[in-house]
Structure formats: C-alpha cells, structure tokens
Specification:
Four copies of one chain form a homotetramer. By secondary structure, chain A is an alpha/beta fold. Chain A is built from twelve helices and eight strands. Chain A has an eight-stranded parallel sheet. At the A-C interface, helix 7, helix 8 and helix 10 of A face helix 7, helix 8 and helix 10 of C. Chains A, B, C, D: This is Dihydrodipicolinate synthase family protein. Chains A, B, C, D: InterPro entries: Aldolase_TIM, DapA-like, Schiff_base-form_aldolases_AS.
Chain lengths: ~300, ~300, ~300, ~300
C-alpha cells in the first residue's frame, strides 16, 4: 500500500507486553482490530506512546512485522524510526521498511546538541536513504528542541518531508506550518498531523489533515466521531465530543507524581484502560517505568465508566 | 583484565572515521597508541566525545573489539552503553561486554521523562544484567536530567554502581558525591571521575579519583602531567598545567555558532587537531554534524602551535 | 467603572516614549483613541507589551493616570502590577488602583524560585490587599513557571482571582481552565482571556471570554472583526480574518536575531508600525533594548502595506 | 569609604523581619556585629539571600541606611540593585547610593528576554549613571540567563564593571573570567567573587578574590578561617574547613520539597539558624514563602549542634 498523504485518525498504538516484558503479539493484533473496527484511517507504531524508546531492536521489528502482516493493505502503517542521530536512524528506517512500513516518522536528533542547520541535514540524509515517505516528528518534550517551522516548510518544498506529526502543543506554530504548506505553490501532498489529544478539534478547524491521539487507543470511536464532526463542519458537535474526550484524558494523571514520571502515569493508564476494556492481556509497561498501583488502576476504571467505556 | 576502581587519566576516545563515514580502525589504534604512549591509565570508548550517539550498533561493536584487541590487558577499557532506556541499554551492555569491555558507562534514561525513582530502577536493572561493573554517566546537557547525588550514593552503597563519571560541570554536587563516598562505611572501591577539562585540578584537589577529558585526545601528556602534579600535592604546578590546558581548550569554540551546534564545533576541533598532529587520517565527523571550514581548521592549528603541539 | 468580567478585545497598550525615554502622554492618548475608535472592549496597560518591565515606578503611575483620566468610565482599564514577589506587587497594586485601575493583572512570583503552594499564597495575599479584582497573568516565557491549571481553578472557586490572562501558548491547558471554570458551580464571573495573537479564533471557539493581543495595537479593527465573527458563529470568516492577522504578525520577526532579543524585535516592530501609521510620534523602545535598523523598519512598512494598513 | 576591589569574605546579609513583616533593624545590626566580630571583609546587602526580591523599596532603603550608618567606614557595604531592566535598576542604584552604598551589585535583565548585546548595553547604561563601582551579579537560577564570560571581560576592560559576583555554580566558566582578568593588560582592580558556599576553597585556589557565602550568615568564623587558610596556601586545612562547612550547609535542605520551594527552605534555614544562635529575634521569611515547620527548625538545630555552633 502506498500512502501519499496520511489523514484522519491515526492512533499511535500502545505496545502490549507479556508479564516478562516481551511483545504480546496476540494482544497487539487485538488492539489493531479494536482500532480498525472503530474506523481509524491509519496506524502509527513505534511512536512515543508505543514505548518505542523502551523497545529493543528485535521488539521493534516484531511490532512492525506483526502489524503490517495483520493490517497492511487495509490501513496504512506509519512506523517511528526513533534514535539519536542520522546513522542510527537510517538503520531503523531500513529495518522498519524491510518489515513493511508505509512511511517512517523521524524526530530531530537528540542527546546530541544540534543546530537548526543540522536538523535539516539530518532529514535530508534520512530521506535520501528511505524507500518510503518521511514524516517529521516534532516532540520537544522528548528531544528538547522545537522543530523550526521554516525548516519544516523548506524541507517540504524540497520534497524531503511528506508530513509533520506535531506533538509540541504549540498550536500557533502548528498553524504557521498548516498555512505555509497550503499557500506554498511548490508543496503538494504534505500531511500535517497533530498529536494533541485535547485540542484536536481546534487543530482540524485550522486545517490539520489528521490527528494522532494516544488516547485514541482507549477510545478510538470518540476520535473517529470527532474527526467526522469536524469534517462535516459541525463545530458545536465537535466541541462536545472533544470535551468528552478531554474529561476522559484525565486518566493520564492517576499516577502519583511523587512516585513516578508523567510518562509512566500516562502510558500506564492507557494500558490499564485497554486491559480493563478487555483489549490486551496485561497492562505491564516497560522498564524502568513504575507501574500504577491497584488504587490508581481503579481510578482509571472510574474514568472509563464515566465515559461509558466499561 | 578486571578493574575494580578506574582512576587517573582515562580519555574518552574520539572515533576516527573514513571519508565515507566508516570507523577507521587503523587511525583508532594509532589514537590508542598515542594515548598509551603518554601514560594514560585507561580508555573510555563510546562516550559522548566518541560520537557514540552517531555510531551504528555495528560501528560501536567494531570500536570496542578493535580497542580491546589492541590494548586490552594493558589498559582497562570502559565502554559507553548509551541508549534511551533499560531494555535498549541492556542490549548494548551485552554487546560491549561480549566485545571485551572491562566496565560499562551508562546514563540516566533520556527521550523518556523519568522520575528519580525510575533512574534508580534503571541502574538496578542494568547492573543486574551486566557481567562487568557499571559506572553512572551524569551528563545533563545530553539527557536533560541531573543525576541526583543521593541516588548515586544509595546505588553505590547497594553495590549497584562502581563509579560515577560526572560531566555536569557542577563541582559542588560532585563534591557531595566524593565526600559521601569517602565517608560512607558501606562503600568501597567506588570511583569518582570528572569529565570537566577545565577544572580537573580542582576536582582532583577535592578528592576525585580521576579525569575523563575530551581534550585528553589532543594533549594526553598534559593531563598525565596534571594528574601527577595533583597527586604529588604540587598545587601551583598543577594550576599552571591546568591553565595551559584551559588555553588550549579554546579550540572547541572555533566553529561558527551561526552555522553549527557546539558539539559539532568541539568534536570537529578535537578531530582536526588529531589530524593536524598526524594521529588520525581524516577529521570527518558523523552526520548530521556540520564540518569545520578550512579557516576554522586553521584556527585549530594556531591553538596547537601556541600550546607547542605542532 | 466596575468591571465584573472583562471580555472581548482588550489590547495590551504599547507605551510610547519620547526621544529621551520619558512616557509620551499625547501619543499614549492618541493610541487610546485609535483603539477606542476601533471598538475595543477594554484597555490593558502595564503588561509585557507595554514594556512594564522597563518602566520606572513614576512612569508606570503616569501611564495609568493618563489612560484612566482619558478613557476611564468609557472603557475598563486593567493594569499590570508586575514585580517579583508579594510585598513588591502589593505596592504596585496600591499605586495603580490609586491611579484608577479597574482591575490588576498579576504574574506568579519570579526571580525567586517558587512552589505551586507559594504561587497560591502569593495570589491570596495580593488579592486580600487589592481594592479591585485580580486577574492572574500566566506568562512562562517571562516568569519561567507555568501557572498550574488546578491552582487557578482553586483560586477562582475561592473568589481570589477574577480572571486569567493566558500568554503561555498552551491551548490544551487553557482549555482545561475554560471548561473547569464553566463546569464549576462555585465559580461565577470569572474571565478567561488569551494573549495568543495567532490562535485567538481557536481560543474563542473553545470558550475564551476575550483576547489580549499585542498585535491589536497595530490592527485593532482586525481583532474587533475577528471577535465579532467568532461570536456570530462564522467560523470560516473568523478563520480568514485570523489568517490575515497571522500574516501581519510576521512583522514581529523583522529584527535580526544576531543583534537583538525577540522582545526587542516584537515591541520595536509594534512601535514602528504605530509610528508609520501616524498614531505615535516616536518608535523608541526602552533601554537596554536594541532598536530596529532603518531596513528593519522598512520591512515593517511592507507588512503594513500588505495588510492594507498604510 | 571607597572600595576599589572587594575581596575576602563578604557575606550576603539575611534581612531579619519582625513578626509583621517589617525590617527588624536591631536584629539586622546585631547580625552586622556578629559578622564584623568574626572578621569578615565586607557586607553585601540586598542580594538574593537578603530576600531583596521580597523587600519593598522602602524596606530596601531602610536596610542600606541602617547598615551603612552602623558599619560604614569600618567595612565596605555592597548593595544589590535588583530589578528587571535598565531604567528600574537605575532608580535602585540612585536609592542605594543615596543611602550610602560603596558599590552596587547588578544582575542581567530578567522577565524581559535579552540578547547578550542587550546585557552589555544594560551594564553600560547602569554604570554610566552610577556614582559608585558596579559589580555584575551572575545568577542564572534567578534571571535565567548565564552572563557570558566574554561580555564580562569586555565590560571589565572598558571600565564598566568593577567586579563579578558569580552564583552560577559553573566553576569552569568562572575560571575563564579569573584568568581572563589576570592576563588582560587593560584590566586592573577588578574583583572576582564566588557565591558558591560549597567550593569556596576551589574558587580561591584558582584565583578568586573573595567569597560571598549565604552560609556565612550562620558561620562567618568558618568562612573567615577558610579564607585565611587558602591565602596561607594550606590546601589541606582549607579543604577540611570547607568540608565542615559543606556538612553544615545540609541545613538548607530541611524544608519539605512537597510543601515549599528551595529558596524558602534555604533562607528559612539561615534565619532559623540565626534565631537559634541568638543573633536575630524572629526567623520569619517574607511572603509568599512557606515557613519551616517546628520539626524542620529542630533539624536546623541539629546541624548547628553538629557543627559546634550551639
């Protein structure tokens, strides 16, 4: 399957693990089915919500192969190629495309301290070596630099990038890319996606092509409805659906901040919710994340109940 | 060779590359000889100065194997196992120890946002799986968290960590670890190393066991002299030698900050200096770093000349 | 004039200066007239765009007195009381309310490193001493902490705060306050205002009460139209007007980042635009800001011309 | 009294408050006597440790007047002129010099986002208006920019700055200023002071002229001994004294981080210690700082007892 322009709802799939920390393929495929049944428009594996940072190379490969084998052809599969710099990212691009990914999603370099000119060089070198389209992944909370809008537009105009997945939370900067892409003669087929669960309606209203919501693992039907309402121009309906999802999103904060980081809490809650909803067998998160306590899991259940998801 | 307590001068080796970006093993071995001839006390490969963040897994393995085969038994070889989280770091630990490393050097998790409790879990899990001692690598500029001193001391007391390589630049915090280690009955054989090129004399004076200076690639004799003067209690001599090295260190800033990041400038300058001194064949740095211009390389040469190194 | 709930378009007024750095009162009053004629709903003096950080206490007092004497009774006047901590802010509150301000706008403490509990204490103590309503000013780029949404809601419920002026750029967090305020039984008359020039339409669509756009100095008619279109439910019209304003906003970046900070560029451009439009006599910014060059001012003129404002 | 070059031990005086938050002048003067009796070489009022950020203009003036009247002529009095930008700092300079300060201590601009060129303009404009020498105050934790070493040296060479008070914790950068000042023909009488309580010995060993230790309020005799040992070249004695002071410094962390910021804990502990030692009447800190609990105060007492100060 060739994807020229990812759009619509493309959840970043959680990666279910077995109790001993290996990829739980049957659970993963049930998650794919759960999402496909809700009507999502694509699948994003090996992103931050997928715990890509925690998966070994063997596990990453298994995830892509399993999902592509199961859903390839029906749904486009985007795969993260998350690593520190160009040479290492190139290796991941080779691995995930060999495993069948339709597009790769690539962050700016991290660990290394890079200049915007080096970020541009990075994407040019990665794209030159990639057999599939490259989507830029803007996630300052992880890589500690913000992808400059003018760099994204320059790379889009040069055909280096096929899209942007924006997890910066900065809607004003996102808008500059959205309108820049639209108004630039030389850019076609570029996809602008937001990773913001809480303002997906606003992002679509200003012209985003699609949404990549981590919470979409838990309630894919909600995001599919939201996307449909936005495209139908039903601003009030969209806002109501979005606010329902915002309330549900509260589950990411169940973890005690005195005991764990915000990532452990959010991913732990997504997995607990998928487990409570019967989609995956085990809510384990990867090392060294601290697991939710039984009380915290119970609070996840209350969020699900309040949203009518149990 | 077993190392219980790394000490003295342990340079973090640059990784020479061929013009097409592969590890230049003959140059790497000449660099090892250059350092050994100067009297260094150990070798640290796959650290930040080694461009570990830029090397593929195959390149990393080749570096460790080559250096261990060449110098193992004569000098202890510490190897970085630099990756985002526990499962990925464990794979690197397995690889570098299979290749013969005498100890592994491990940062806090990065990309992921972790809590101090998760940093501790990370080191415990890595150490449990490591056949060799684990040295913690505190490098906030890369991983964006400072390793808390109390976590280091707790892990030292529990036998999880065998040492600390501090590249934080925070000498006051470093001192707390140095004195904490010294005064704690239950901690023995723990090695406290500084990565600060410019205050190595001060770090040794407050009780550091050794120094891991990137600039030690360029002038290993200088750091060996500095270490000897400090151990001999010659504060004035040490200060003079240190100030000479501080002047030389100015070479890390030759790169134009409008054109490249500080890492590209520093590593580019180290490699240019090694090339000008005839140690390595090619000064190339890895992608996506911007190379120094001929003018900038010329300025590196002036620093070398001023230091009597050409 | 009593204001219970500021709403609509409330520009943060630039503070025109004479060539020798004193407040240019006639120009300031012409700016007030320029805004009033466009139909704005309130005036915010002594905010960041007003260069409050650069004005002496005497200048601050003169600004408030002048604007209140000129426009008080016709338009509500909100005044910043910007200083580091509670005792100093209390003094500013006393000064600006003596000068006639209808409400005060107060940031979290800065310079000092504060805990969220101390931020709450700060607002409670300031409000207890203020004869007028207190609006919280969330501006992390200046004070280096983000005002936590739950603290804002707690203070709103307790009647401590009368509103929030959000300049964080984080629309998701802003939405949590908007919906939190709306859904909380115990909160009435609380005003939620955005300082984001580029996503004012989105902020109004999710329920903001008003906008406080620095660019509103330059094109108040545009923001008044935008506000009207949003309230009329004309999403497409609002989006078009907003995008026109986004294009105009490009003028804030005319200043060379190699020569000046982003604040000097933005405030310099606002003042240059007001000067070119004939509203103020002199575009000078306060010390130590670097002034725009003639070329940079010319580029401001081009933005105005493109927007039909010259 | 004219001071050309502050040197030695110059504690940043705590500002004792009465139970209702006013400056407690008798306690302040007892603190001055306590320090003078220990043999300190100067007094620094209205610094961060003095809670300058929390004092009103009237309180600031009272502090300077009281201390100058009491100790002026015997000890040089340096006074902070802490505010956001040039015009406001100029007013503070006028006030503290009218009150008799021998030198003023000035940070880079804060709240505003400034460029290094603007920091330099700031100091030039402040110095041009100051009747007394200007000392730069490098305190990134408060102002969120690091004072660039080359800017300091340029301003020193031009006679704009008379000294540097470094509270950055970055000893390598500090050393660059120390040696830059020493080696520059055109710089004379420039004073380089460290604010680092824990590495004062190291700072003096690399060439600092003096120390400005907050902990010097609590144990001025310790820092005077340390300074004397360093100047006598007794590195081992200095190290032992410094380590004793490091152990005592642990008192700054008695405050529960779940309940208060680090500043509240540190200043609260200094004041509690001064109260327990009988120097000041009341340990109150200014609003909105959270006070230490009785248990936390008891722990301060244990630190004092362990150091032989009770």
């Amino acid at each position: 399957m060739t994807i020229t322009q990812p759009a619509g709802v493309i959840p970043p799939l959680c990666t279910p693990l077995t109790p001993d920390g290996e990829v739980d393929v049957p659970s993963l495929l049930r998650l794919v089915d759960h999402l496909a049944a809700a009507g999502v428009h694509g699948l994003f594996v090996l992103g931050s919500t997928s715990e890509a940072a925690y998966l070994t190379d063997a596990q990453r490969r298994l995830v892509v192969e399993s999902v592509v084998r199961h859903a390839g052809g029906q749904l486009p599969v985007l795969a993260g190629a998350i690593d520190m710099t160009t040479p290492r990212v190139r290796d991941h691009v080779a691995a995930v495309t060999a495993a069948g990914a339709d597009a790769v999603v690539v962050t700016a370099p991290f660990y290394a301290r890079t200049h915007p000119a080096e970020i541009a060089r990075h994407y040019r070198a990665v794209a030159a070596a990639s057999p599939v389209p490259v989507v830029a992944y803007d996630i300052p909370v992880a890589v500690h630099t913000k992808l400059p809008g003018d760099v994204v537009l320059e790379l889009a105009a040069d055909g280096v990038l096929a899209g942007l997945k924006d997890s910066s939370g900065d809607l004003a900067a996102f808008r500059q890319v959205v309108t820049g892409v639209r108004d630039h003669q030389g850019i076609t087929g570029f996809s602008v996606l937001t990773g913001s669960e809480l303002i997906a309606d606003a992002a679509l209203a200003i012209g985003a092509d699609g949404v990549v919501p981590g919470l979409g693992n838990v309630d894919p039907h909600g995001y599919v409805r939201l996307d449909r309402l936005c495209r139908a121009g039903d601003a009030e309906g969209a806002r109501a659906e979005q606010e329902r999802l915002c309330a549900l999103f509260g589950l990411v904060s169940v973890g005690d901040p005195a005991r764990m980081g915000p990532g452990s809490s959010a991913i732990g809650a997504f997995k607990a919710a998928l487990h409570l909803r019967g989609v995956i067998d085990c809510p384990l998160t990867a090392e060294p994340q601290v697991p939710l306590s039984p009380d915290e899991v119970e609070r996840v259940g209350k969020y699900l109940a309040a949203a009518g998801l149990l």
